[in-house]
Design a protein that fits this description.
Blueprint (H helix, E strand, L loop, with lengths): L1 H19 L4 H5 L6 H14 L4 E2 L11 E4 L8 E7 L9 E9 L2 E9 L4 E8 L7 E7 L6 E9 L2 E10 L1 E5 L8 E8 L4 E10 L2 E9 L6 E9 L6 E8 L5 E8 L4 E3 L5 H4 L23 E6 L13 E9 L4 E10 L5 E4 L8 E6 L3 E8 L4 E12 L13 E5 L6 E6 L8 H7 E3 L1
Antiparallel strand pairs: 1-3, 2-3, 3-4, 4-5, 6-7, 7-8, 8-9, 10-11, 11-12, 12-13, 14-15, 15-16, 16-17, 18-19, 19-20, 20-21, 21-27, 22-23, 23-24, 24-26, 25-26
Length: about 425
């Protein structure tokens, strides 16, 4: 039967291809459904190139069109940037940027620029405090792990590249808290194998590198970067979560003390290490308790799980703060992070001297008092239930406390309290249960 089907499919494919072959190469390369202005820009670009072009579209970010129309130089009229490629170019410079401006009501190409990569990943426009809006283009290289970030300004009908950074990670953040954007980049020095973190921002009216230092060696990639206060004094930090090849995670932090940046000297992988498995999701540095300061997590196996393989351990998440300018790493609170990563249950204050034991079933998580001397599980303190949409009916009674629905997973959560003196009251429980 299969041998009879294949010729039919082959014939159908040949027919389809032959029907397409009547279209010209120009028609195949033409952009689909351009509006009036885009069509005028496209025609002006083709006049400049005097040949066929292939439009290139950014893969991510706010600007996903090959055409970006924006006022780049603060003059009355907009400019246009078009990402395109010349076919059949083998010298590595086929990806290009063309800048166009309106002259006497018509779009005209005014500058053509060779791009720094093989694909456009994203385009951003940011106020870096240097007097002109900066255009930031991230290019992907043929090596998927590398990219170039090109930072440009535009004036007098020409772009000026201020900086070109080869990196494995780039983000825009306000590292020093002055409400002006900075560029955070992680680079891999191939010759030495050292991974460097750098911050670029305004200095004396110009874009400059404000900080650079090596991150922890041996990690496999950046997982998350968050910037904010790290203590009640308003000291700033950039927390950099990284992944190791074995599936564990750690954190470095860059501190800003109001004058300069430096790596938090107290942090190392041994104290920020956290594991993930089917019971423990990836956990990033964040403001976990809503106090406005970033906390850094670490994981510790619950009792009865410490001797099991990492893949079978159920972990408590212990959250820490950086204090005294990043020289002190202080435990703030303990918690359980839901197996789906959609909630954090902060342990009540009266659990401070209590070791909790946890057991997980398909729909519930049960917390018991645990005696570390006798290794005996004590009374149940609280039970948390999760239910998918359509399965919540049995929890809609006075027996259970509704804790809300996660926007991430759509799961609804409920709790059942006990008569244990360690069981929190309803008001306290609601303040400790945080949906993500």
């Amino acid at each position: 039967m299969k041998n009879r089907i294949l010729p039919v499919l082959t014939a159908a494919l040949v027919l389809m291809l032959s029907s397409c072959s009547s279209a010209s190469v120009e028609e195949l390369l033409s952009p689909p459904r351009l509006d009036g202005e885009q069509s005028d820009i496209y025609d002006a670009l083709k006049t400049f190139t005097n040949g066929d072009i292939i439009l290139k579209y950014p893969r991510s970010g706010q600007y996903r069109s090959a055409f970006v129309v924006r006022n780049l130089d603060n003059e009355p009229t907009d400019e246009s940037i078009v990402f395109y490629e010349m076919p059949n170019v083998s010298d590595g410079s086929s990806l290009r940027l063309n800048f166009l401006d309106k002259r006497d009501g018509k779009w005209v190409s005014v500058y053509d620029l060779a791009a720094s990569g093989s694909e456009v990943e994203s385009v951003l426009f940011e106020d870096l405090g240097i007097g002109s809006t900066a255009m930031i283009v991230n290019y992907l290289m043929q090596s998927a792990s590398d990219r170039y970030t090109s930072i440009m300004t535009y004036s007098d009908s020409a772009p000026q590249e201020l900086m070109n950074i080869r990196n494995i990670y780039m983000d825009i953040l306000d590292a020093d808290g002055n409400e002006v954007s900075d560029i955070f980049a992680v680079t891999n020095e191939r010759s030495s194998g050292i991974t460097m973190a750098s911050i670029y921002g305004e200095r004396d009216g110009e874009l400059a590198r404000l900080f650079t230092a090596p991150l922890n060696s041996g990690f496999a990639g950046i997982r998350n970067v968050i910037c904010g206060a790290c203590d009640e004094n308003g000291t700033r930090s950039v927390a950099v979560d990284y992944a190791f090849s074995d599936g564990s995670f750690g954190t470095d932090a860059i501190i800003y003390n109001g004058k300069y940046f430096y790596l938090a000297p107290v942090l190392n992988p041994d104290i920020t290490i956290r594991n993930s498995n089917s019971y423990t999701p990836y956990i990033s540095s964040k403001d976990a308790d809503g106090d406005g300061c970033i906390e850094i997590p670490a994981t510790v196996p619950f009792p009865d799980y410490a001797d099991l393989p990492l893949s079978e351990q159920v972990n408590m998440t212990v959250w820490h703060s950086l204090e005294r300018g990043g020289t002190k790493f202080t435990q703030k609170f303990r918690s359980f992070v839901g197996t789906k990563g959609d909630y954090i249950f902060l342990f009540p204050e009266n659990w401070g001297g209590v070791t909790a034991s946890v057991s997980i079933s398909e729909s519930s998580v049960v917390f018991n008092r645990y005696d570390t001397i006798s290794n005996i599980k004590g009374e149940e303190m609280i039970r948390i239930y999760g239910a998918a949409e359509g399965n919540t009916g049995k929890y809609e009674t006075d027996k259970y406390i509704s804790l809300g629905k996660s926007d991430i997973t759509g799961y609804s959560y409920y709790a059942a309290l006990t008569n244990s003196p360690l069981s929190p009251d309803e008001e306290t429980l609601r303040s400790l249960f945080m949906l993500q």
